[in-house]
Amino acid sequence: MYGDARPYNYGENYDKIDIPILFFISMQDYLMRADDVIKHYEALKQHHSKLASVKVFDGLGHCDFNYRHHDALAVALQEALWKSIEEDTSNSSSSSGG
Fold first, then answer.
1. Could you say which of 34, 47, 65, 67 would form a disulfide bridge with 15 (CB–CB 3.0 to 4.6 Å)?
2. pLDDT digits (tens, 9 = 90+) for 14-58
3. pTM for the structure as a whole
4. Residues 6+ apart with CB under 8 A from 17
């Protein structure tokens, strides 16, 4: 990967991902277009449908995601984390026979 003239192709490695990924899309993000994010979401979903989810935000740009606090973004992150914890706990108890 490092020292290679070609950029890293994440799409070739989505089969190796084993943790939930929440893709954020902003309709006002002009650095990371929505269709590019959707391509990554769909690629992961092909390999691991339960690990891929997407959340669309309106009115936020690229810098908003990186440098500013927005209640809607914070709530989406908290909900995703709680869902992941609940699913992990549920899977742990069912695999241990509980």
1. 47
2. 899 888 888 988 888 888 888 988 999 999 999 998 889 898 888
3. 0.69
4. 44, 47, 48, 51
- Give the contacts of 39 (CB within 8 A, at least 6 positions apart): 11
Q: Does residue 27 sit in helix, strand or coil?
A: coil
Q: CA–CA separation, 98 vs 94, rounded Å?
A: 5
Q: Where are the alpha helices (DSSP H) in the chain?
A: 34-47, 62-67, 71-95
Average pLDDT over residues 7-15: 81
Who's near 40: CB < 8 A, 6+ residues apart?
10, 11, 23
